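testing teh design pipeline on a random one, pls ignore if ur not involved
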């Protein structure tokens, strides 16, 4: 059956469904002060070996963007906080901050 089109549109919960996202969360995750950062030290050493002088302590982290299908800012903040606490950040050793745009 070559050339037949799908007769059914994607389900609402399907990843193929077209959704309108109202907000974007820009999440920054960093190690807490006092937590050893071996990747930051490696970056610091690499910068020095490339001739970048005057570079002090280097700390690395993560940046994550999440599109949200939400119009209520309070609900969006609650959702992002839960995402960070439940999955995105290890709150024992990491801090997180975010901004909502859109």
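output:
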């Amino acid at each position: 059956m070559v050339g037949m089109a799908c007769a059914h549109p994607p389900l609402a919960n399907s990843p193929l469904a077209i959704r309108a996202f109202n907000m974007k969360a820009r999440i920054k995750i960093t190690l807490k002060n006092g937590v050893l950062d071996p990747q930051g030290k490696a970056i610091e050493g690499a910068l020095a070996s490339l001739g970048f002088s005057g570079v002090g302590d280097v700390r690395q982290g993560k940046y994550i963007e999440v599109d949200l299908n939400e119009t209520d800012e309070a609900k969006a903040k609650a959702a992002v906080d839960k995402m960070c606490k439940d999955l995105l950040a290890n709150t024992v050793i990491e801090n997180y901050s975010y901004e909502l745009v859109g």
